[in-house]
Amino acid sequence: MLIIDWKVFNMSIKKIALAYSGGLDTSVAIRWLSESYGSKIVTVTVDVGQAEDFKAIGEKACNVGAENHYTVDAKEEFVRDYVFPSVKANGLYQGKYPISTALSRPLIARKLIEIAHREGCDAVAHGCTGKGNDQLRIEISCRALDPTMKILAPIRDWGMSRDQEIEYAMKHGIPVSRAAKKYSIDQNLWGRSIESGPLENPWNSPEDDGWEWTTSPELAPDCPTVVELEFKRGVPVGIDGEECSPLELVRRLNRIAGENGVGRIDHMEDRIVGIKSRETYECPAAVTILESHKDLEKLILNRHELSFKRLVDEQWTFMAYAGFWDDPLREELDAFINKANDRLDGRVKIKLYKGSMMVIGRESSNSVYDFKTATYDSSSTFDQSLSKGFVELWGLPTVVSRKVMSSR
Ligand code: ARG
Question: What is the rounded CA–CA span in Å between residue 128 and residue 136?
């Protein structure tokens, strides 16, 4: 039995642009939307590097009932305008998650709205459930880009259980894959998110069958791989002395770091809707680039810049995670972040070995490290006699407070 929300059902809609992944949910959505609203459906699949068979996805959409299908290659745009800004912001949500899924959503929203306009649609639709963060990211961005566009979330609204959905699909000749889905997966160039199934018990260790991009550290090569990453203005531009396009660079690092078992993440995450959830990710390039970038910042920025930038970075990452990519604050934070990254040219040397990634060297023409002041040898220009007064003044408030407290 279908439970239909009549408020939604009564809305008159002529044509809908649906963000389409090719999976069961959005395939059922094609049929369900056209049945529920009597409208035409145009499907949109945005290629952000999820390595799917896009031709087959388009064919499936049309077979299920889409009037037209678009595959949008947004890989370069994704890396340049979404991933690299997150590198400059050291984007790790709760210190662990490289916000890979999150970064793709405002871009998907953009493409969806663009095609909705081109096709003269009066609504867009997406396949997010009501339990995740993606509904926020897609809907807030769509609304920010075009407040007049109607937004439909069929999977959130239709009230079908998984079994009812499969029954609906079979009834309407929508292909259902035999293999029961063990995990919920989302992937793009910046990472692969693996959740649900056995991972819903936080005590269960991730099973081998969940990982695809990373070699198990136990099976990774016995010999470490050393890689040199070149940065210009805060973003990586080359590997091992060879210039690389953003897209090529991320791909290469996903492969190299992944082969060495680097990039597996397992953590307890706080979703914006209030759910505490256990999430795993594999993000070989992201982990490697983010750690290198942060290290280079420590070589080039002074301590005031560093401590303030950590606050800005955290707010920036929260904005991107929580659906506020199109909020003006994100751009205002970017202005600071870009300024702070202006001098971030240099090289970072990293060692990848059996699941670990370690920065083992860094250099920059803008380094504020000064050998002459830092060295312990006799050539040091640091005047230690100045420290005597400095120590006394630096500690003054503490010493005075203690004195007063002890005489009470
Ligand atoms: N928790 C992550 C986020 O909110 C990843 C979500 C991944 N989605 C999925 N269908 N597996 O960005």
Answer: 9
What residues line ligand 1, using a CB cutoff of 6 Å? 101-102, 132-133, 184-186, 193, 195, 269, 279
CATH no., domain 6-91+98-180: 3.40.50.620
For residues 229-251, average pLDDT = 98
Q: CA angle, corner 48, sides to 358 and 323, nearest 5?
A: 85
Domain extents for the chain?
A: 6-91+98-180, 185-301+343-363
From the CA of 184, give the closest atom in ligand 1. 11
According to the CATH classification, is domain 185-301+343-363 in 3.90.1260.10?
Answer: yes
pLDDT in tens, 257-267: 999 999 999 99
Respond yes or no: is residue 342 known to be catalytic: no
Phi, psi of 104 (to 5 degrees): -75, -25
Taking the centre of ligand 1 as the mean of its atom positions, its distance from the CA of residue 186, in whole angstroms, is 7
Question: Is 362 an active-site residue?
Answer: no
Active-site residue, 186 included: no
pLDDT, tens digit (0-9, with 9 covering 90-100), for 8-29:
555 789 999 999 999 999 999 9
156 among known catalytic residues: no
